[in-house]
Description:
CATH class of the largest domain: Alpha Beta
Radius of gyration: 20 Å
Number of strands: 13
Amino acid sequence: MISLRAPEFWWRKAGAAAALLYPAAAIYGAIASRRMHREGYRAGIPVICIGNPTLGGAGKTPTAIAIAELLKRGGKNVFFLTRGYGGSESGPLLADLSKHDSSAIGDEAPLLAAVAPTVVAHDRAAGARLAEASGADVIVMDDGFQNPSLMKNFSLLVVDGARGIGNGLVFPAGPLRAPFEQQFRRANAMLVTGEGEAGETAARLAEKNGLPVFTAELLPDPESAAALKNRRVLAFAGIGAPEKFFRSLEAVGAVVAGKKSFGDHHRYTGAEAAQLLAEASAASLQLVTTEKDLARMRGDEKLAALCAATKTLRVAISFGDESALFHAVGNALKR
């Protein structure tokens, strides 16, 4: 699998590099818009979709987990549904952590399966049917907003406050998966994670078009944060926004003496593992990465030593107005 690193010009005001890609972006955007308007399978149970208007990380998986936990507290039998990006299994299948690692079911599924039953399926409609047959009351999708094969009862678009929608252009000229206007017309709400003018700009645009906007923060787990406070660390990450992870480490008091950024969904090699271990050892640094990166490395013998030597900074979503968001989701369940 190829790991992807978003070009810097995606997150700046559109310039010459983006302009060269306008024609390709126009074609991609038109195809994506038409695709989103297709009718999909209507499941016999509610489907809640946690999506992202852009490529790259914004906190979808922690948000999906938090929404599922809210529904579980309300007595619902929640099943997650995810594509299993980067995994070899196309599904539909129920993730079994005693048999499946991230090489089989992708980066997100192991994290989701630790919380609730998780269906991995490239075909979202087939995955929904498996969840229904397995006793689900409600499906929470991690990603898949732009995929039309399964109809959604409630779609929440998650936007990173620091990066927003970047230069506002569609891939490959910018980070958008489809024209933004087309996306928020098919969404029910937006969630802005963290602070930043870029996120506020996206929120204003959404609110101007009648889309409710909620806010949230990604908060570090106190125990893992305490273990890293005042520690000199070598931080590495292969996620959509590694710089966000590095800032989080600094915010909890870790001394980030070294940083290594890899492309999103990066599969670490034995050589890379050896290099990270050697650099950390030479400078007496503690290796630290994200939960998603560590889950991706587990089960690979070449990476066993790296896994054993690496700590994680666990994070969870804290909603600004949890009751209002849960009320919005509840109304969708009633419909």
